[in-house]
């Protein structure tokens, strides 16, 4: 078999995947974009051209603006907590050689469950009820005499109720961040650390000026992955509180608008804006990665 035949055979193998992606990914994105520019309201399709009116209406909608605010709060706290905790856990496990595998499995275990399961479990742990119905963490604080820690958790008055949803999200994803950082730390040559120590650097200086800068690509990758998750968070919030408007985010608004309100044009517009938000995060990363590989 010559080179040309091998190329044709390889192309034949990937052609079904290309067609499927073209139809079920990019084709549906294009269709959603067309719907977002229409006047489709109701069960019967209506492709009457509406231009950008659905998008303009969203930015004049107070609920959508609150959704963006909730998403920003969630993203900031989620990224910061996951990165810091993940890095600290990675450093700890890297130093505890004898129990590294054990702790790695323990911290990675939450990733084995879905956000739905996490939400159901933490809905009980963060039960805001008090008095005879007190349970979960509030009951623990009550028994320990730490009444000042008892609070309403995710039912706290907006906009800070969404910040408490970060707790179960971090519980699930900090192990993943830990695994990324641990791989990065263990890939750093030991000679670099030893050379720095021989030059008089202490442990903190080795971490600050050698390890941390070399972990920048890992941090960037973690930010992209976690940011992508936070921008489209849906199942965790629904599992914890249903469609509570105090914890409303664009994905929940899209669901209620499209399937509960049958406003398919506006729902598609929300979906397109969410896609653009993710693209603004992912595309620069892909460009940076490709340029880095070319330079190497």
Structural write-up:
With 296 residues, the protein is mostly helical. It has a single domain (64-295), classed as Orthogonal Bundle (MetI-like fold), CATH 1.10.3720.10. The protein has 14 helices and no strands. It has helices at residues 3-36, 53-59, 62-95, 100-108, 115-125, 136-143, 161-164, 166-186, 190-198, 203-214, 216-231, 235-241, 250-260, 264-295. Helix 1 (3-36) packs antiparallel against helix 14, helix 3 runs antiparallel to helix 11 and helix 13 (250-260) runs antiparallel to helix 14 (264-295). It is flat and about 70 Å long.
Tally the helices: 14
* Structure summary, number of beta strands: 0
Which H/E pattern describes the elements?
Answer: HHHHHHHHHHHHHH
Largest sheet descriptor = none
The CATH class label is: Mainly Alpha
Q: What is the name of the CATH superfamily?
A: MetI-like
> How many separate domains make up the residues?
1
The CATH architecture: Orthogonal Bundle
Tell me the strand percentage band: under 5%
* Rg: 24 Å
Low-pLDDT runs: none
Structural class computed from helices and strand pairing = mainly alpha
The whole-number mean of residue pLDDT values reads 88
Termini gap = 33 Å
Question: Percent range for helical residues?
Answer: over 70%
Shape: flat
CATH topology: MetI-like fold
């Amino acid at each position: 078999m010559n080179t040309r035949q091998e190329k044709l055979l390889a192309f034949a193998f990937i052609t079904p995947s290309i067609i499927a992606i073209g139809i079920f990914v990019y084709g549906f994105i294009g269709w959603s974009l067309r719907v977002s520019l229409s006047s489709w309201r109701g069960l019967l399709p209506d492709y009457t051209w509406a231009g950008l009116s659905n998008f303009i209406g969203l930015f004049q909608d107070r609920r959508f603006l609150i959704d963006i605010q909730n998403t920003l709060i969630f993203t900031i706290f989620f990224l910061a907590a996951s990165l810091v905790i993940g890095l600290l856990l990675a450093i700890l496990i890297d130093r505890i050689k004898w129990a590294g595998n054990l702790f790695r499995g323990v911290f990675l275990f939450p990733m084995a469950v879905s956000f739905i399961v996490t939400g159901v479990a933490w809905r009980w742990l963060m039960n805001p009820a008090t008095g005879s119905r007190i349970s979960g963490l509030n009951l623990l604080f009550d028994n320990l005499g730490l009444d000042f820690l008892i609070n309403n958790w995710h039912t706290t008055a907006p906009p800070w109720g969404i910040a408490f949803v970060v707790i179960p999200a971090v519980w699930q994803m900090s192990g993943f961040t830990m695994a990324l950082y641990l791989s990065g730390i263990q890939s750093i040559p030991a000679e670099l650390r030893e050379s720095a120590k021989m030059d008089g650097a202490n442990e903190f200086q080795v971490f600050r000026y050698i390890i941390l800068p070399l972990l920048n690509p890992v941090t960037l990758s973690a930010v992209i992955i976690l940011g992508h998750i936070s921008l489209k968070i849906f199942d965790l919030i629904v599992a914890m509180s249903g469609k509570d408007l105090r914890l409303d985010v664009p994905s929940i608004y899209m669901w209620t608008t499209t399937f509960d309100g049958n406003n398919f044009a506006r729902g598609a517009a929300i979906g397109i804006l969410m896609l653009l938000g993710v693209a603004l995060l992912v595309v620069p990363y892909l460009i940076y990665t490709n340029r880095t590989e070319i330079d190497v």
